[in-house]
């Protein structure tokens, strides 16, 4: 069926508007003067050099990267184990467990932030690496679990049966058949969790402190005081990094995974 | 085997438990420390009531805009031969940190921002139009931030539809509009409602976008909580407001969930 012209016009406009603010930020980051303007009144790498020369910014960047890598690896491992545990479990048990795993998606982030703040202050873990990491593990879990569950469901059962019939031990079936077939799901899980953790700000800003902060939280604090082009430069780095990761997901598993996950989510009872 | 499954699920169970303890602690703490009196104070405070009302209407309008705009784009993507290419334009901005995207709108909407400067250069205005720090700016920002969620949700349900149903409708003499109204739209309602509930939930709990684009005057619940923590240092009030936020989100999303259940029932009955 053809689309009406109005539909096409709205769609094309949105495809321009969605990336527009990001393109503007990248453009403004090359301003040689201390004013945010687009198009920039000239071209310079000044603000990128300032970013690279600032210990505070580089530290925040490194801390964000470490948190995101650890969160991605740990949640992915936890999610693979959970998906294997729930595979072929009774339907009711499975759906109850999945609802619990996806629960963080059903709560507003500002409330989650306060909840963690209260709980971590009680354990004296507030303002440090461990506290932020724990929050990120919980927030990443739904995003890590779903692609793996999708992948696991797509595995052809006759392959694991064949392995068993041919005399493979359960452990061998797991490592030689199941895990290799889960690779797209694991890749998607790692990349999703990394992105979620690396970008998270609403919950994280309640949990950072003078000793430990993440890049998006520092950007937020900085914008709140003064929006100068150094923020534009750092933001541009983040934008390009994210775009690179999206292309990587496209290469490794295909962007279709975003749609499959959505479908999976709708079938799971909420 | 049973024990093995439990062991595999244990790490995920720990994350679930940690989340449950955090949320449970939040609700429990708001009653034990603040008490019912605190809620009575909040609910009789004119400022809080205004913030509450603003949270509701801004979230509802954001959701409406997201659905109305996302639908044509999702339809366009579902029919496009170059879907993957367009998906990159939708997904990349989606995954960039909210702070960075909001910052882009600050650069666009500021008094010396891109929009005002362009209008001035075109000779259309003499003095800058005040756009930043208005509810309109918050609406634009939130819609931009959450739009991709709805696009993906609707796209996913459109791609699942059997295209032959639309063809049948056209062959039987239905116009393009009738086919859309009677076939395509009803079948995609699960995606629409799923996307809408997600946006509603996230918009009520948003902090960064309303704070940076709306300023401190036009507060929402999330920004009010933020202020209580970081400027007033009143943890009890923030906790009680976070619980209020949970209730507001639940009440707002509940009708959508009921609608979803009803639609699922009727569609499974067909």
From TrEMBL, chain A:
Coiled coil stretches, renumbered: none
Residues annotated as signal peptide: none
CDD domains to which the protein is assigned, alphabetical: TM_PBP2
Chief location category: membrane
Residue ranges constituting the ABC transmembrane type-1 domain according to the UniProt record: 61-249
Keywords, sorted A to Z: Cell inner membrane, Cell membrane, Membrane, Transmembrane, Transmembrane helix, Transport
Membrane-topology descriptor: Multi-pass membrane protein
Entry superkingdom: Bacteria
Database matches in Pfam families: BPD_transp_1
Bilayer-spanning residue ranges: 61-87, 99-119, 125-145, 181-198, 230-249
Subcellular localization: Cell inner membrane; Cell membrane
Protein family membership: Belongs to the binding-protein-dependent transport system permease family.
PANTHER family: INNER MEMBRANE ABC TRANSPORTER PERMEASE PROTEIN YDCV
Name used for this protein in its record: ABC transporter permease
Lineage: Bacteria, Pseudomonadati, Pseudomonadota, Alphaproteobacteria, Acetobacterales
